[in-house]
Design brief:
Elements: E1 7-10, H1 18-31, E2 35-38, E3 42-44, E4 54-60, H2 66-79, E5 83-88, E6 92-94, H3 102-110, E7 129-134, E8 143-146, E9 149-152, E10 155-158, H4 168-173, E11 177-181, H5 185-188, E12 193-194, E13 197-202, H6 208-223, E14 229-232, H7 241-251, E15 256-259, E16 277-278, H8 281-289, H9 297-307, H10 313-328, H11 330-337, H12 345-357, H13 370-383, H14 388-400, H15 405-429, H16 450-463, E17 468-469, H17 480-488, H18 493-507, H19 512-525, H20 530-544, H21 555-570, H22 572-602, E18 606-610, H23 631-642, H24 654-669, E19 678-680, E20 690-694, E21 699-704, H25 707-712, E22 728-730, H26 741-744, E23 750-755
Parallel strand pairs: 1-2, 1-18, 2-5, 5-14, 7-11, 14-15, 15-16, 17-18
Antiparallel strand pairs: 3-4, 6-13, 8-9, 9-10, 12-13, 19-20, 20-21, 21-23, 22-23
Helix pairs in contact: 1-2, 10-11, 10-12, 10-15, 11-12, 11-15, 12-13, 12-15, 15-20, 17-19, 17-22, 19-20, 20-21, 22-24, 23-24
């Protein structure tokens, strides 16, 4: 099996192609990267900026350079001794531009008689396929027949053979599909989709034929040695994730395979999945969490309550999930409820909805994970005692037929309810302390302790040592450095609360949760361009679905939110106050960034570096985190480091690049050092401010945590880190290391130690 020493994620798009990726391959090799990790590379919807909207899985995307450029990139990476990991999307395909997807076009043209009719998860018993593309009123007056196709503005649809003739309306009524108003999609859709995105139609990869057709090209690249690893997007949407991974492993026995599985704290990865691990959100929660001071929880709860932000996490989460089942995924819930036998339709719908709302994890994998299913049923009973009979019937049918359609569809959809309700709604409503509001995170738990971190790291080394670890992805709510500076707020909760009161009185946002989120975001990204912050707050407001949303707009509120960044930064006194506050926490933020990065790069697992984050990166949620990366600047800094420079910790981020480069090079050139895991415990009055461990007997890592409290307490004050016998050298500085932490950390707040001549 080809397990990379590390990966570097790049976001391919028409403006950054296979050839552009080849152009940075040498830089990545010099940085210390083991494998280039690419966003989806199969042909995607016209103009796609991310590639998750695949339209043709049988060819490399022409807009990225096509097959020739893909092969050239693969050949170069092989020459450099690097691997290539690609992101694959088995759950869905784009149908936004019907003609771009030949399979979907054929289904629209021939209906159930199409050779591709079984490729998509369509409920054919409900009649013609419903396509929610029309305007608010659902009017079809704009329909016309052009060149043998049915046209609606710039959208085109095929005309079934033998049905042409008559008015456009008459032609429309004779097709295998019906164009309906877009608002009807959530309630009436007759095909499964990706979450609530109607232009992403679900694919039935549980069918061996569909699997072969959708995976054949990528698996050919694996067989040829061009692709060494696969990252699998959203497996929870599949009918049988375990069966899918077993088939994938059979067809790619030597590939490194990681699953984008979001694990709840304490939830194990299903044992029957033949994968190397997750894509690292569990590691993110643990690494970021150990740099948060749990003592700040009461102060942040008090501030949130004072401002009117709800602080009952589970109640907020349940409300958000119920909004998803009752307003967004209505069609999916109804389709599942119709499969429940001998139960009134409304009672069945309510029972299905309440069960998914109560899921303690994203989904179960029956017959595995029966405790999660039982917990969901129990939670539904507690919320709705009146549904006892319906829940009894649901529980009995699912347990009796764990591979049946009811159990399968309910499990596929529960993950959608959790993701939309929790990640995409609750995390923008429950804004008490936003650094915890991360994919795979638990905002109700205020950080983790050092001993818990050690336990979890040791478990990863024992169970999934080749799992990916990450701090930033294209899906994170904020980048690692934004989160690291935000974590400092937990060390100055009183000062921050006073500042928020002062700032809100001068220019607050008239929605409490967004107001608190806005101030946390402003200080953690300062100095951010007003336009970037405006776009972020617009998205946050719409995702929260409190005062406005993507579909039902409050124009006045949106205008006020859009004006907020400019108003704040244009108010000289207010902006100066914010800037002074940031200056007081900035140094500690840098320390957190360096600490969490060194831990991620050296702890158990395969570390991924998201594009550009080898320097400071104060990004927010997508699309902000997909902005172009200045590789010329990074090459120039790396060149200086290769010549021996040890940069200062300043706004340039060069110190972070030093840490990334030194750790990655050591990991690539001496992989045997990165085996095993044992805690190292500091001794002395400031011991709690040091997180340290060994990997092999000859590698030790030590980092500073809670730096504000450390300084306030008078520094290290004789605290020592007892190192195993022998001479140790700090790879970052080249100096002989000492166990005296004041000396060890006098240059950088982190240390990467190697014993002897190892």
């Amino acid at each position: 099996m080809t397990v990379p020493e590390s990966t570097y994620r790049v976001q391919l798009r028409p403006e950054f192609t296979f050839s552009d990726a080849a152009g940075i391959a040498g830089y990545l090799r010099d940085l210390g990267i083991g494998a280039l990790y690419a966003s989806p590379v199969l042909d995607a919807a016209p103009g796609s900026t991310h590639g998750y909207d695949v339209v043709d899985p049988t060819r490399a995307r022409p807009a990225l350079g096509g097959e020739d450029a893909r092969r050239e990139l693969s050949a170069l990476l092989k020459e450099l001794g690097m691997g290539l990991v690609v992101d694959i999307v088995p759950n869905h395909m784009s149908v936004e531009v019907p003609k771009a997807n030949k399979w979907w076009w054929d289904v629209l043209e021939h209906g159930r008689d199409s050779e591709y009719a079984s490729f998509f998860d369509i409920d054919w018993e409900r009649g013609p396929l419903l396509l929610p593309v029309l305007g608010d009123d659902g009017a079809v007056a704009e329909l016309s027949v052009e060149d043998g196709e049915l046209a609606y503005y710039d959208h085109r649809f095929p005309i079934a053979p033998g049905t042409a003739g008559g008015t456009p309306q008459e032609v429309h009524e004779r097709q295998h599909y019906r164009l309906i108003g877009w608002r009807r999609g959530n309630a009436e859709l007759s095909y499964r989709r990706f979450f609530d995105i109607t232009n992403l139609a679900a694919v039935r990869v549980e069918d061996p034929t569909v699997f072969a057709e959708t995976h054949g090209e990528v698996l050919r690249w694996v067989a040829d040695g061009d692709v060494t690893g696969l990252r699998v997007d959203h497996p929870d949407g599949l009918a049988d994730p375990g069966g899918y991974f077993r088939r994938l492993r059979e067809n790619a026995p030597g590939a490194w395979i990681v699953a984008e599985k979001i694990l709840h704290p304490g939830e194990p990865l299903p044992q029957t999945w033949p994968v190397d691990g997750t894509t690292g959100y569990d590691a993110l929660r643990e690494i970021a969490g150990v740099f948060v001071d749990p003592a700040a929880e009461p102060a942040f709860t008090e501030l949130a309550n004072e401002l009117g932000v709800k602080t009952g996490y589970h109640r907020v989460e349940a409300e958000a999930r119920r909004l998803v089942t009752d307003r967004i995924l209505v069609a999916e819930v109804r389709r599942i409820a119709a499969l429940l036998r001998d139960v009134d339709a409304e009672a069945a719908r309510a029972a299905v909805a309440e069960t998914m709302i109560a899921f303690p994890v994203y989904r179960s994998y029956l017959p595995e994970g029966t405790e999660h299913w039982a917990a969901a049923i129990a939670g539904a009973r507690q919320a709705r005692p009146d549904l006892g009979d319906a829940l009894d019937a649901l529980d009995a049918q699912v347990r009796a037929e764990p591979g049946g359609e009811l159990a399968t569809r309910l499990q596929q959809t529960s993950g959608m309810v959790v993701a939309k309700g929790t990640e995409d709604t609750t995390f923008y409503r429950y804004t008490r302390f936003a650094a915890l509001n991360e994919v795979g995170g638990n905002p109700d738990r205020f950080g983790i302790g050092v001993e818990e971190f050690h336990r979890l790291a040791a478990e990863r080394e024992a169970g999934h040592p080749a799992a990916m670890t990450t701090l930033t992805t294209h899906d994170t709510k904020r980048s690692e450095d934004t989160r690291a500076r935000m974590a400092v707020l937990a060390e100055v909760p009183g000062e921050f609360a006073d500042a928020v009161r002062r700032w809100s009185a001068r220019r607050g946002i008239d929605e409490p949760s967004l107001n608190l989120l806005a101030w946390q975001t402003l200080v953690s990204t300062w100095p951010i361009e007003p336009a970037r912050l405006r776009d972020y707050l617009d998205k946050a407001a719409k995702e929260a679905k409190l005062r406005t949303s993507w579909t039902d707009h409050d124009e006045a509120f949106e205008a006020d939110v859009a004006a907020w960044p400019g108003d704040v930064m244009g108010d000289a006194e207010l902006a100066s106050d914010v800037e002074a506050f940031v200056a007081r926490i900035g140094k500690a933020g840098y320390a957190n960034s360096l600490g969490q990065k060194l831990v991620q790069l050296t702890a158990p697992g395969v570390p991924d570096v998201y594009q550009g984050t080898e320097l400071w990166d104060f990004s927010l949620v997508d699309p902000d985190n997909r902005r172009p990366v200045d590789y010329a600047a990074r090459r120039e800094i790396l060149a200086r480091i290769l010549q021996g420079e040890q940069p200062e910790i300043d706004a340039s981020g060069a110190a972070k690049l030093l840490v990334v480069h030194k750790a990655l090079r050591l990991r690539r050139e001496h992989p045997a050092l990165f085996r095993g895991y044992r805690p190292l415990r500091a001794e002395g009055p400031a011991a709690e401010h040091c997180l340290a461990y060994t990997r092999s007997a000859d590698l030790a890592v030590a980092v500073t945590r809670l730096p504000v409290g450390l300084e306030a307490g008078g520094g290290w004050r004789g605290t020592v880190l007892p190192l195993p016998g022998g001479t140790w050298t700090d790879v970052l500085t080249g100096r002989e290391a000492t166990g005296d932490l004041a000396t060890l950390f006098d240059r950088y707040p982190v240390a990467l130690l190697v014993r002897g001549d190892a």
